[in-house]
Automatic annotation (TrEMBL):
GO cellular component: mitochondrial matrix
The protein's name: phenylalanine--tRNA ligase
Pfam families per record: BMT5-like, FDX-ACB
GO MF term set: ATP binding; phenylalanine-tRNA ligase activity; rRNA (uridine-N3-)-methyltransferase activity
Origin species: Tinamus guttatus
Alphabetical GO biological process terms: rRNA base methylation; translation
Record's keyword terms, sorted: Aminoacyl-tRNA synthetase, ATP-binding, Ligase, Mitochondrion, Nucleotide-binding, Protein biosynthesis, Transit peptide
InterPro entries in the cross-refs: aa-tRNA-synth_II/BPL/LPL, BMT5-like, Fdx_antiC-bd, Fdx_antiC-bd_sf
EC class: ligase
TM helices/strands, residue ranges: none
Length: 580
């Protein structure tokens, strides 16, 4: 030790003693508190301290580090084999018997960004000592160095009001709270380096080798009005516009009565954060607006344009919005790429096969460039739900969709995908009376899922992160395998049990939508673990298990507990359940 101290001082280092690691800021002037790195090798409370006391030590240490660490600084903590409780430990202890290092670090807004073996042999003169507070060594075989960095804060989103042109009318509305951070992100803009745009750009380039291609760059409204086509009502984000300023009190009062029913039936969350919104929205309640769930309704408008050219492939891209149950591959908002062409009757099958082959070749090429992992693309007949959805734009003028298939992709880049991911649909339909008898062939692709498969991104939420460490891996619009900057994030499990209202059908999609909103997309799983019906009253009780976990931010045990409490209040408020 004396030799090491002398070496440090000879090199200009300042050496301090008796520093309390839980109060670091007390030992340094404010100008000296921006450390680029803080190391703590094998922390321990001393003697036979149990895992609980050592967790408390680490929690206080991380909180102290947050006060003296530079914004892009690192905290290195070396632990003996098994202590950390992460999958990197070999062998891995049970969570309750570990130091739970990722969870205690999350309490101070740190995420685990790297784990490396602690190689004592590579450190000249290193010797461990302190076993049970004695001058004895301890085993460092299998020890790991855990490297933590600062997390971006959990988002506390403010209500957002948007104005959009819909025909000749300007419509003002409040954005559903869970979509506030996903509106107008500009992933597809010309100067964007987001992998979603790169996938669209490079896939379109591959298709242009087979077809004449035209990209439709005109601004398409996110807002629709009227018929939703074949999409289920409960899967649509309904929007109630703000009233015109000269709306009378009687009009707003009349609308308020309808608004209560509308919120209850279709679960429009616009009134969620603003108690008076129902009054403000009232007079326009009869006009049913919604965020577009698909780009397919634009097909008919496209083929009726005077400039529309048969046998040319038109490309339309943009974000679409759908309420859906929580799962790793179910996205409430994603970027759809719609490829549309029209040919004379009798040529449609050949045109569709050429389109499918070109899409398959493009996906293979992009995937090979980024990862080189095994990839399988298959076409499967669409399910009834997908058929209905595809028929949504063909609801008039005898447009009958003839063939629909889903595009399924399997890859080993993300581990096992037993059934593959459905990344799109293809189909054909009669173009209608105004199209001159042409047959329309189209392919709809989910660019977000394609980007995930090609770049090995396991969680769709990562595509929407505000952390710069995501986009920095795709500079220049280059597709490559993604390396997560938040390893082994902690998860927290909470159960909720309630009686379902006797007079109403339980809306599970609304249940999941509330969970998405109150948790700020940190609920990764909802499982029905029990269903019970009372033998005398016939009342039905449901019990769900919610798992909270963030893919890019520090989520503490307290954060999850507070979200769960809010979730319980919200399901009472909107679904009228009785908590047990």
């Amino acid at each position: 030790a004396a030799r090491n101290i002398r070496r440090l001082r000879e090199r200009g280092a300042e050496v301090l003693f008796s520093v309390d690691c839980t109060k670091l800021k007390d030992y340094f002037l404010p100008s000296d508190r921006l450390f680029s790195c803080v190391y703590f090798n094998f922390p321990h409370c001393g003697r036979k301290a149990g895992v609980v006391k050592n967790r408390e030590l680490l929690a206080q240490f991380f909180s102290s580090c947050a006060e003296v660490l530079a914004e892009e600084g690192e905290v290195h903590v070396a632990l003996c084999s098994g202590q950390g409780g992460t999958p990197a430990d070999r062998p891995r202890r049970e969570w309750h018997n570990s130091w739970q290092i990722v969870a205690v670090a999350a309490g101070a807004r740190f995420i685990l960004s790297d784990v490396r073996p602690f190689n004592a042999e590579s450190i000249h003169g290193y010797k461990c000592t302190g076993y049970r507070s004695q001058d004895k060594s301890f085993s460092v075989d299998g020890a790991l160095n855990h490297i933590f960095t600062r997390s971006t804060p959990l988002l506390h989103l403010k209500p957002m009001v948007c104005q959009m042109e819909l025909g000749s009318k300007r419509v003002s509305f409040q954005v559903p709270q869970m979509l506030v951070d996903k509106i107008n992100r500009g992933f597809l803009e010309r100067n964007s380096e987001h992998p979603v745009r790169t996938v669209k750009k490079q896939l379109t380039a591959v298709l242009s080798q087979t077809f004449p291609v035209q990209s439709i760059d005109c601004s398409l409204s996110l807002l629709h009005k009227g018929d939703i086509g074949g999409v289920c009502h409960s899967n649509v984000f309904w929007i109630i516009p703000k009233p015109e300023q000269n709306a009378s009190t009687e009009q707003m009062a009349h609308g308020l009565a309808n608004a209560v029913l509308f919120f209850h039936t279709d679960f429009c969350k616009n009134a969620d954060e603003n108690g008076c919104m129902k009054v403000q929205e009232g007079n326009l309640i009869s006009e049913q607006y919604f965020l577009r769930p698909s780009l397919l309704p634009y097909v008919q408008t496209l083929i009726e344009r005077a400039t529309f050219l048969p046998e040319t492939l038109y490309v339309i891209c943009g974000p679409v919005f759908r309420k859906c149950p929580i799962s790793p591959h179910s996205l409430p908002v994603f970027h759809e790429a719609l490829f549309v062409g029209a040919v004379d009757r009798g040529m449609e099958s050949g045109f569709m096969q050429m389109l499918v082959d070109a899409i398959r070749s493009g996906i293979y090429l992009l995937h090979q460039t980024a990862s080189g992992c095994k990839l399988t693309i298959t076409l499967q007949e669409a399910t009834n739900f997908e058929r209905t959805e595809l028929n949504g734009f063909a609801a008039s003028e005898s447009q009958i969709t003839k063939i629909q298939h889903t595009v399924c992709v399997e890859t080993d880049a993300l581990g096992s995908c037993e059934k593959g991911w459905c990344v799109g649909t293809v189909g054909m339909a009669c173009g209608g009376a105004k199209s001159g008898g042409l047959v329309v062939v189209f392919a709809s692709l989910n660019l977000d899922l394609l980007a995930m498969l090609i770049c090995g991104i396991a969680d769709w939420r990562m595509l929407w992160t505000s952390d710069e460490r995501f986009l920095s891996q795709f500079l220049g619009g280059e597709l490559r395998l993604f390396k997560s900057f938040s390893l082994y994030p902690p998860s927290y499990v909470h159960d909720v049990s309630f009686w379902v209202p006797e007079s109403e059908q339980f809306d599970e999609v609304a249940f999941h939508t509330i969970a998405r909103q109150v948790s700020r997309e940190t609920v990764v799983s909802i499982q029905l673990i029990d269903s019970f019906q009372h033998s005398e009253t016939a009342r039905k009780s449901l019990c769900y298990r919610l798992t909270y976990q963030s893919c890019d931010k520090a989520l503490s045990c307290q954060d999850a507990a507070e979200m769960q409490l809010l979730f319980r209040k919200e399901i009472q408020r909107y679904l009228h359940v009785t908590l047990r």
